[in-house]
Write a structure and sequence with these properties.
By secondary structure, the chain is mostly beta strands. It has five domains: 8-164, Sandwich (Immunoglobulin-like), CATH 2.60.40.1510; 170-266, Macroglobulin (MG2) domain (Immunoglobulin-like), CATH 2.60.40.1930; 273-500, Alpha-Beta Barrel (TIM Barrel); 504-577 and 706-748, Immunoglobulin-like; 585-702, Immunoglobulin-like (Sandwich), CATH 2.60.40. The strands form twelve sheets. It has a 15-stranded mixed β-sheet that branches. Strands 7-8-5-12-13 form a five-stranded antiparallel β-sheet, with no helix packed on it. A five-stranded antiparallel β-sheet has the order 44-47-42-51-50, with no helix packed on it. Strand 53 (725-733) and strand 54 form a beta hairpin. The longest helix is centred in the middle third of the chain and has 14 residues, at 315-328. The radius of gyration is 27 Å and the shape is globular. The N and C termini lie far apart (63 Å).
Length: 748
């Protein structure tokens, strides 16, 4: 067997310059000097310098000395070598890897010098990864004996930099979305840098301006250098209605909060979660402790969980996860759930999130592909059907999702532990997983999470990664913030999902006479029910009626573009807060979709839009989170952009002036083209199918400005004689964010 830890103390040393701290996303040139240890390095031996797979550092190259990421290597004794930079050709999570093969031996004390982002011949250098990390390691492993068995340097000898946030570029103001009148709540204002990292580099005064009186809210708050946020607890509001708070600097609004609904009669509060992400102990960045700290004190979600890949979780790390959740969990204030990601291959069920109510429960791994740990009895479940059997009787929640491996819900489903499916994460937007479940007749709720690998649960920006999506959130309807309440209401699918925004939504069904609202899915031989004339999102209801009335309320931070109502797989209505008469000289060009369901789903778009006849007055990008890859208006008639989509959408809004009867838009992309007269672009838009699963190019006409941030929808729906009606809403906001209610299931 390979001996990967043979005398790491004798494998040499390394020095890194500059040592940091380094600003996230900044351009740098690093000099890494490795000094051979006691054994030197034999002829045909070598070493590797590796970085985490999900670092979005500039890809390194050795061909163009003037281009970004230029890498040079030299040996102190002039010994020849071969070198390459590769992606995912090294053991995870260290997939970004410089490999050096020595063509002549090195003696103890000889050196190999790496200039990573060598600027001496005109290269701008290498851009440091865009997310902060306390110890961003340049991990060195050495093959001293030419056995292709690489031994890492000792942990305290591995070179690293501290990556810190930059100056504030964006401000966030956060309220809860539903509270009772008089119930204490929290308000948070915080700055983020250019890449979405919480920033501690602001000093000054913030003015707070609520739309209605809030008890305890001061007129101003003071930020001190080194502070990441200002948190105001124990605020209250007396009057019913929707509340917002603006944050201002020198009279200018820098943040507009999400809306908070105050109700005198609600039995629930709204609590937000990102229960799905990883840390550096598996494939992500940062420590698990930093991960939980970020969720509680930086993104200010109410609930989180850690979902490391099971085949990378040792028994010791599983103990650490359980220890951390017990430490961070604070009933009534913040919930931290023990759990992991069952990461079976798609053909055996695919990725599933696992959360336990309590610590100390077993981990059932899909494999031990990386973990060699056998300190405890074998408990592997190689197939998701084996997992469901092992979890029978456990107090557990399971949710299938789409990640590197996608979950195949048509392969297996167990309603006793699996109440919902995840439709959105940093990997993209995947309505098809909910459609698959509904097609199979499953009664599922809809959730979202980040599946973030950058240690930022609850505020998971994509940075310069291949995934272009902001991480999702789930809003849970709970009578109180406790694990018991969460598990009970999760099992009843009382939640809605978003692509990361915090909007208020309420979905109810009205019945003319009392109906049976089941406490559990009645297919589980649990027929306990409550009689009521109303049901809320996620409920399963038996009625003798042919019709019922669906009521939806939406209150958002930005204007609403449209609301789509579904009965299972069928869209039964599309509503907008505007009509044909409201359309103006604003045109939205959208690229959306994915290639496949698997790892190759990403679609790369290279696009341009030319206006023939008239001028483009201004543009606005939608869902372009990378500050270095924004659409560019290159002339008064042309816009160009490059984007990626993985199920979701990216759009560019064009405001046009001086257009005539013959004016037209000519849109060209590497996926498909569209040429259309402005006069032919209407409310519903015109689209071109570009292959893949739902790869589409779309252009639509919109009002000059949208203003409606609230919508109420009331619609009569049919209840079939056989099977379920499954009524839910999909809400699209002007800024590109999407939200889904869990379906209400009605049957006779």
């Amino acid at each position: 067997m390979p001996n990967h830890d043979y005398r790491p103390d004798l494998m040499g040393s390394a020095e890194l310059s500059p040592a940091g701290p380094i600003e996230a996303g900044s351009w740098q040139s690093y000099t890494l000097t490795y000094t051979a240890g006691k054994f030197g390095i034999d002829d045909q031996g070598g070493l590797k310098v590796a970085f985490r797979t999900h670092s979005d550092m500039t890809p390194l190259q050795m061909d163009d000395p003037k281009a970004p990421g230029y890498l040079t290597i030299e040996t102190s004794n002039g010994a020849p070598f071969e070198a390459e930079f590769s992606y995912k050709r090294n053991l995870r999570p260290w997939g970004l890897c410089i490999t050096v093969l020595c063509k002549q031996f090195l003696k103890p004390g000889d050196q190999i010098i790496f200039r990573i982002g060598d600027q001496r011949q005109g290269s701008p250098g290498v851009r440091t990864q865009t997310h902060i990390e306390a110890e961003h390691q340049f991990r060195i492993t050495v093959d001293a004996f030419a056995t292709v068995d690489y031994t890492p340097l000792e942990d305290d000898a591995q070179p690293f930099i501290k990556i810190v946030p930059g100056a504030p570029k964006l401000w966030k103001a956060i309220l809860p979305t539903l509270r009772k009148a008089g119930q204490p709540f929290r308000f948070v204002v915080k700055p983020e840098d250019n890449w979405g990292n919480p920033s501690d580099k602001f000093e000054g005064e913030i003015t707070l301006r609520p739309n209605k009186p809030i008890n305890g809210l001061p007129e101003t708050v003071a930020f001190k250098a080194g502070e990441f946020s200002v948190v105001l607890d124990d605020l209250t509001a007396d009057a019913e209605g929707d509340y917002t708070v603006d944050a201002l600097i020198n009279g200018e609004v820098v943040a507009h909060s999400n809306p908070m609904r105050i109700s005198a009669s609600t039995g629930f509060g709204h609590y937000w979660s990102d229960m799905h992400g990883q840390s550096g102990e598996t494939i992500g960045s940062g420590s698990a402790r930093d991960y939980f700290f970020f969720a509680k004190h930086r993104s200010f979600v109410d609930i989180t969980g850690h979902q490391g890949n099971d085949f990378q979780i040792s028994d010791n790390f599983w103990d650490e996860i359980n220890s951390l959740t017990a430490e961070f969990n604070e009933e009534g204030k913040f919930l931290a759930l023990p759990g992991y990601e069952w990461s079976g291959n798609t053909g055996l069920g695919g990725d599933h999130n696992i959360w336990y109510r309590n610590e100390g429960r077993p981990i059932y791994r899909s494999s031990r592909a990386i973990v060699r740990d056998k300190t405890r009895p074998e408990s592997d479940c190689h197939d998701v059907t084996e997992l469901f059997e092992a979890l029978r009787g456990e107090d557990v929640l399971v949710v299938p999702h789409v990640g590197g491996r996608f979950a195949d819900v048509t392969y297996a489903h167990d309603a006793s532990v699996e109440p919902s499916v995840e439709v959105h994460s940093s990997w993209g937007t995947f309505d098809w997983i909910a459609q698959d479940a509904l097609k199979m007749g499953y009664r599922i709720g809809i959730v979202a999470g980040s599946d973030g690998h950058k240690g930022r649960p609850g505020a998971s920006y994509p940075g310069d990664a291949k995934f272009g999506s902001y991480g999702g959130l789930t809003c849970h309807l709970l009578p109180e913030l406790t694990r018991d309440a969460l598990f009970e209401e999760f099992r009843r699918r009382h939640h809605y999902a978003t692509t990361g925004c915090r909007l208020y939504m309420s979905a109810e069904m009205e019945y003319d006479s009392p109906a049976r609202v089941f406490v559990r899915n009645p297919t589980l031989d649990n027929t306990e029910f409550e009689e009521s004339t109303t049901a809320i999102m996620g409920d399963i209801v038996q009625t003798d009626q042919d019709k019922a009335t669906f009521n939806l309320e939406v209150s958002a931070q930005v204007p609403i573009e449209k609301v789509e109502l579904f009965d299972g797989l069928e869209m039964i209505d599309r509503l907008r807060p505007y009509g044909e008469a409201d359309l103006g000289a604003r045109y939205r060009v959208t690229c959306k979709g994915q290639e496949t369901r698997g790892r190759q789903r990403l679609v790369k778009w290279t696009a341009s839009a030319d206006l023939e006849g008239g001028k483009i007055r201004r543009i606005r990008p939608i869902n372009f989170y990378n500050p270095d890859r924004q659409p560019a208006q290159v002339s008064d008639t042309r816009v160009e952009w490059v984007s990626v989509t993985t199920g979701g959408a990216q759009s560019v809004d064009l405001w046009v002036e001086d257009a005539g009867a013959d004016s037209k838009l000519v849109i060209k992309t590497n996926q498909g083209d569209l040429e259309i007269a402005l006069s032919d672009i209407g409310l519903e838009g015109t689209e071109v199918a570009c292959g893949g699963i739902d790869k589409t190019l779309l252009v639509q006409r919109m009002p000059e400005e949208l203003t409606e941030t609230q919508m109420a929808v009331r619609r009569e729906v049919s209840i079939p004689g056989k099977g379920d009606s499954a009524i839910f809403a999909r809400v699209v906001l002007e800024d590109g964010h999407v939200a889904w209610t869990s379906p209400i299931y009605s049957f006779k």
